[in-house]
Amino acid sequence: AIQWRGVIAEYADRLPDHVQTHVVTLGEGGTPLVPAPALDRRTGAHVLLKVEGQNPTGSFKDRGMTTAMSAALHHGARAVICASTGNTSASAAAYSAAAGVTCAVLVPDGKIAMGKLSQAVAHGARLLQVDGNFDDCLVAARKLAEAYPVELVNSVNPDRIEGQKTAAFEIVDRLGDAPDVHVLPVGNAGNITAYWKGFVEYAVDGPATRTPAMWGFQAAGAAPIVLGHPVTEPETVATAIRIGNPASWDRALAARDESGGLIEAVTDEQILAAHRVLSREVGVFVEPASAAGVAGLLMMAEQGRVPHGARITVTVTGHGLKDPQWALRTPDGSEVRPERVDPDVVSIVRALGLEEA
Ligand code: F0G
């Protein structure tokens, strides 16, 4: 096909039948692997970015939402619910609009980025701000879905994982085999679970001869898996991964250990520094949480722990326009204001410091 048809049509033979009877798609998946010479230089590896911000709603969640929403229609659901730090709610709202079902989202009060909030509202979701954090929202959403006729579309829903594993397939299909290392940010730990499932399936009976080491990175203020215990008050600028008690904790540990990988923490400073490298030297604009994987990779390089010449893929999970405020801050935290000039060439030349030709 000339046009990418969405992950259910493209990977039909590797997805369950029940997501294929009432397919809800917005053309998700088929995202590019973008070379990042600036990261090659810093790491001594060959780094490719899987740019998931190019999905329909601007994050990787769409891969799992096409499958979860299609399954919901198959089950005859009329309403769906999710807890979210923002991207899941944006995706659920858009796919609910496409499916013609009612969508309710629970988000932590005041801690969700404006772009994501506006998406959920624009697509007509019932948005409730909960006086609590993401973990509180998820507990409530799970209880609700047990007691009422609404389908839960968080990543604890196995159909979400099925859809999200297609990103691993795309990487192997493009490279011809699995990379040496796959790097990604970890929040509720659904995505690392999904990538690992995809890489394993492709190594068992697909085109891959091996699986990559999985390197996951949490934000230091929200790093329960690294610390080995839940964090009751998670804090980080990377609001998407501000999560203290990840639902797929065990499966993240399994992915780490079975793959010979690691899960470590990066500070907000490291996240914002990586965000700047991606913006200024690679040309890829991401939201802060999406820079956590790159921050981790750069930290590993500084510690001399990146194998020379390794082929490394890094998922950058969400688009920069979701949460653009960080681009308008200098490293010392002050606000960037556009320079004003008069509308004449002399003023503009002077402002830019141009020499005469
Ligand atoms: N990056 C972004 C941009 C995210 O939105 C999330 C999760 C993650 C990384 C972490 O992925 O949870 O599968 O480990 N966002 C969820 C949400 C929690 O509600 O949008 P994970």
UniProtKB/TrEMBL annotation:
Keyword Secreted tagged: no
Top EC class of this enzyme: lyase
PROSITE patterns in the record: DEHYDRATASE_SER_THR
EC annotation from Swiss-Prot or TrEMBL: 4.2.3.1
Residues of the Tryptophan synthase beta chain-like PALP domain: 24-318
Keywords: Amino-acid biosynthesis, Lyase, Pyridoxal phosphate, Threonine biosynthesis
Cross-referenced Pfam families: PALP (PF00291)
InterPro entries: Ser/Thr_Dehydratase (IPR050147), Ser/Thr_deHydtase_PyrdxlP-BS (IPR000634), Thr_synthase-like (IPR004450), Thr_Synthase_bac/arc (IPR026260), TrpB-like_PALP (IPR001926), TrpB-like_PALP_sf (IPR036052)
Catalysed reaction, written as an equation: O-phospho-L-homoserine + H2O = L-threonine + phosphate
Cofactor(s) needed for function: pyridoxal 5'-phosphate
A molecular function (GO) term: threonine synthase activity
SUPFAM superfamilies: Tryptophan synthase beta subunit-like PLP-dependent enzymes
Pathway(s) annotated for this protein in UniProt: Amino-acid biosynthesis; L-threonine biosynthesis; L-threonine from L-aspartate: step 5/5
Gene3D superfamilies assigned: 3.40.50.1100
NCBIfam families in the cross-refs: thrC
Family: Belongs to the threonine synthase family.
PANTHER family with a match to the protein in the record: L-THREONINE DEHYDRATASE CATABOLIC TDCB (PTHR48078:SF6), THREONINE DEHYDRATASE, MITOCHONDRIAL-RELATED (PTHR48078)
Function: Catalyzes the gamma-elimination of phosphate from L-phosphohomoserine and the beta-addition of water to produce L-threonine.
Protein name according to UniProt: Threonine synthase
Organism, scientific name: Actinotalea lenta
Gene: thrC
